Amino acid sequence: MTVINLNSELIAIEISGEDASTYLQGQLTNDINELKQKPFQLSAHLNNKGRIIASFFIINREAGGFYLLTSKTLADKIISRLKMFILRSKVQCQLSSKDIYLLTNQATTTESMRINDKYFLALGSLPDNSQENSTLWHKLLVDNSLPMIYANSSEKIIPQQVNYELIGGVNFKKGCYTGQEIVARTHYLGKVKRRMQRFTSINEPTIGQTVVSPKLDNQEVGFIVDYYKAEDKYHGLVSIQTDCSDNAYLDNYADTAIICNPILTENE
Predict the structure, then answer these.
(1) Are 59 and 136 within one domain?
(2) CATH number, residue 57
């Protein structure tokens, strides 16, 4: 069994208390009540402009409540932000002390989720045979088209611009939540000009890096969501203006275009 230590990549925020569900329902893009029938849920917390502050994998907590797994780069920002909205609710919000890891066998704890046919993401005590492999984690995210928001990409885009509603991260039938008006208006009245696509580059990008296009006089048309290196190329996810995806460059490499390919077809 392979075990990959992800404590350097992720944190788990523990949300508990008798008002935990009601509280999260007003803060997240997804319907937390539907998690009762699922092993995990994708969701996000937005600012008032509808832009994603943090994305989450949400797992039920065995003792009641929930774990919100998100990028470690957002630890201080998102915990402080979530605590702002507790007010008089009977809710506790704190950083969990549990380890986070990938493993290749079925997890023995219910505090876990399946990433793909091979890997499970789990919380608990880190097994002795664990190893570090950040590249594998980013590869899993990219290959499974799962956008993770980091400090360098926080508050850049609305959920639709990373295909979040297409992969089950947004519920349009639930009640109001912070930023909901912008997301709903885009869904029902607007057209999404930016989408998440896969990209390949011979030049090394950075997460959050600006992507430009000669079609718009080398103005910004997107940014790098995530990536990993395989052999001599970089493969990743990019949020990009779709009509410029056939002619796009990293902002510091004007001589070589990145190759973009759509992931999902919009239902128009």
Answers:
(1) yes
(2) 3.30.70.1400
For residue 232, count CB atoms less than 10 angstroms from its CB and return exposed for 0-12, middle for 13-18, buried for 19 or more: exposed
Q: Give the three-class secondary structure for 9.
A: coil
Q: Distance from CA of residue 256 to its chain's centroid? A: 28
Q: Dihedral through CA 157, CA 31, CA 57, CA 17, nearest 10?
A: 120
The answer as to whether 256 is a domain residue is yes
Supply the pLDDT for residue 268. 40
User: Residue 14 corresponds to which tokens in the numbers above?
Assistant: 């523990």
CB 164 within 8 A of CB 147: yes
Rounded Cα distance, 260 and 156, in Å: 20
8 Å CB contact between 11 and 59: no
The answer to whether residue 191 is domain-embedded is yes
User: Are residue 175 and residue 250 in the same domain, yes or no?
Assistant: yes
Q: Are strands 3-5 and 131-132 parallel, antiparallel or unpaired?
A: parallel
Say whether both 138 and 212 belong to one domain.
no
Q: Where are the alpha helices (DSSP H) in the chain?
A: 20-25, 75-84, 134-143, 180-189
38 located within any domain? yes
- Specify the pLDDT at position 39: 83
Domain final residue, candidates 84, 117, 143: 143
pLDDT, tens digit, for every residue of 225-256? 999 999 999 999 999 999 999 999 999 998 89
With a cut of 70, which residues of the chain have pLDDT below it?
106-109, 264-268
Same domain, 56 and 108: yes
The residue out of 117, 143, 169 marking a domain boundary is 143
The pTM of the full predicted model, rounded to 2 decimals, is 0.94
Q: Could you write out the DSSP letters of every residue in 60-115?
A: E-TTSSEEEEEEGGGHHHHHHHHHHTTTTSS-EEEE---EEEEESSPPSSSSEEE-
Question: What number of residues does the chain have?
Answer: 268
